[in-house]
Automatic annotation (TrEMBL):
Species whose genome carries this gene: Asticcacaulis benevestitus DSM 16100 = ATCC BAA-896
Keywords: Hydrolase
Record's protein name: Isochorismatase-like domain-containing protein
Hydrolase recorded as keyword: yes
Keyword set includes Hydrolase: yes
SUPFAM superfamilies given in the database record: Isochorismatase-like hydrolases
Length: 175
């Protein structure tokens, strides 16, 4: 693997999170995955018990339910990591990044204000540089939640790390 290798982390593009406000990222991310050396898809699930069930009274996204299925087709060599919390920064992800020798990632997906925000912050705090593809992130609740989350990420990890993809380009320019 070269120092120029790039990984794309696609957060929670699952059937249960695709709404009219978030569906625009599905096809774009399905196409973009082929422009990266590595791709990781993350999947949220809500087991019983969980803080989502206990504190938010939410039983959606139950393990093995159709809503937890990916809403796109991952490429053949994609890594898929499931987890029961907001952050996709799990031991499995960290082992992959270490194996690949990567200290920076590109990240996009659904749940800008939840899973994307929490994951980006966790990556940053572990000294892994996150590049947020803001035009390929979405909230299933719409711009009312997406836009403030982008602003918060810009503040937390630096505005220069929140970039626009502008389509599937083979080598995404870092600002």
């Amino acid at each position: 693997m070269s120092e120029e290798s790039q990984v794309l982390i696609v957060v929670d593009v699952q059937k249960g999170f695709v709404t009219p406000q978030s569906e625009h990222v599905v096809t774009a991310l399905e196409n973009l995955q082929y422009e990266f050396d590595y791709v990781v898809f993350t999947k949220f699930y809500n087991p019983d018990p969980s803080p989502f069930r206990k504190l938010l009274n939410s039983a959606s996204m139950a393990p093995q339910s159709p809503e937890t299925e990916l809403a796109l087709t991952p490429r053949e060599d994609a890594v898929i990591i499931s987890r029961p919390l907001y952050s996709c920064v799990t031991e499995a992800l960290l082992v992959r990044l270490k194996t690949w020798g990567l200290k920076e990632v590109f990240i996009a997906g659904i749940g800008t204000e939840t899973s994307v925000l929490k994951s980006v912050t966790d990556l940053f705090e572990l000294n892994i540089r996150p590049w947020v593809l803001k035009d390929l992130c979405a909230s299933e609740k719409g711009a009312e939640f997406h836009d403030p989350a982008i602003a918060i990420m810009s503040r937390l990890i630096g505005q220069q790390h929140v970039i626009t993809c502008n389509g599937a380009e083979a080598n995404i320019a870092r600002s």
